[in-house]
Amino acid sequence: SFAYFTVKDRLPQILTRVIDTLHRHKNEFFEEHGEKGVEAEKRAISFLSKLRNELQTDKPVTPLEDELPDAALWNQYLDYQRNLSNGNGEPSWFQSPWLYVECYMYRRIHAALAQNPPIDNFDVFKEGKAQNFFESQEAVIALCTYFQELLKNIKDLDEKQLQEELFKLLQVSLWGNKCDLSFSAGEDSSQKSSPLQSLENMIPYILVNDTEKLWSLLVNAKKRNTEKSNVRVDIILDNAGFELVSDLVLADFLVSSKLADEVHFHGKSIPWYVSDTTKHDFNWTIKQLQSANHMWMSRCGINWEGNLKKGVWVYHDHMFWTLPHDFSSMAEVAPDLYADLQKSNLLLFKGDLNYRKLTGDRKWEYTVPFHQALNKFHPAPLCSLRTLKSDTQVGLKPGQGEQIQASEPEWMVNGKYGVVQFDAAL
Question: Which Pfam families match (predicted)?
Answer without folding.
Answer: ARMT1-like_dom (PF01937)
